[in-house]
Amino acid sequence: MLRILISLLVTIFFQFCSSFTSFPTEVVGKGKPTPFKKELAKSKIVFKKIKFADWEVDRKGLINLDDEKSIKAGLKSGDEPIQIYAYILKHPEHGNFLIDSGIASAFRKDTSEWPVSSLVKLFMNMEKLKIHLTTKEFIDSEKLSLNGIFLTHLHVDHIMGVSDIPLTVPVYTGPGEPKTKTFDNIFAQGTIDNLLGEKRTLYQLNFPSIDRNLDIKIIDFFEDGSL
Q1: Per-residue DSSP letter, 127
Q2: CATH code, 152
Q3: Which domain holds residue 74?
Q4: At residue 13, does pLDDT exceed 70?
Q5: 105 or 16, which is more confident
Q6: Helix, strand or coil, per DSSP, at residue 89
Q7: pLDDT, position 148
Q8: Which of 20, 159, 162, 181 has the smallest number of Cβ neighbours within 10 A?
Q9: 114 lies in a domain?
């Protein structure tokens, strides 16, 4: 009886959960599995960090305030200053790639036209967002032709610039993340879809599984040891 009840509760839970996005996804076999090494060869890639915005969000969403170290430091709930960054990777043969996406031009408009729901605006302190640079402004100023974007994950602050990226540029995510279901996504999915812009396919990288010896393998994306 208990097993049936647990099964029923799990079914109900997933029925009332949503995935991060409704966008289509496709698993891609880019790169090759390679053992993780502490010492990496000198990379061919030019790496640059770009600051797009300053923001303030609730500290309890970033830090475990119940942790012993937090208590010892006297940390309390309140606004925590953060920044929104993206990173440009320039490979001599394979071109230019972004890690995360910056801030879209849509956020230069009046807040009433921002591609986020009223609920997200409220809970994420969107009125504290101070934009220094948009993704389109960065691409135009650098005269960049992008060959891809790597999204570290699909939280709002990492995807706010995707709608400035042409649909021809592939967007790569971690395995399974776009269709991972959570209760929070019931409220966030619409905003995430809006931030991703026009309907596009998200490409999931196919990371190798850990073998019996617990040897960690990574993806050598360009198959030259550079990334």
Answers
A1: G
A2: 3.60.15
A3: 2-220
A4: no
A5: 105
A6: strand
A7: 98
A8: 181
A9: yes
Model confidence, pTM = 0.86
Query: How many Cβ atoms sit within 10 Å of the Cβ of residue 12?
Result: 10
Domain membership of residue 48 (yes or no) is: yes
E strand or H helix that includes residue 10: helix 2-15
Instruction: Judge whether 72 lies within some domain.
Output: yes
Cβ atoms 66, 75 nearer than 8 A? no
Distances (CA, A) of 167 to 133, 148, 154: 21, 10, 18
Give how many domains the chain has, as a whole number: 1
pLDDT tens-digit profile of 30-75? 888 887 775 556 778 999 999 999 999 999 888 899 999 999 999 8
Task: With respect to residue 225, please indicate whether it lies within any of the assigned structural domains.
Answer: no
Q: What is the phi/psi pair of residue 130, to 5°?
A: -120, 110
Contact between 84 and 162 under an 8 Å Cβ cutoff? The reply is no
Q: What distance in Å separates the CA atoms of residue 138 and residue 8, rounded to the nearest whole number?
A: 50
Per-position b or e across 92-102, b if 16+ CB within 10 A of its CB: eebebbbbbbb
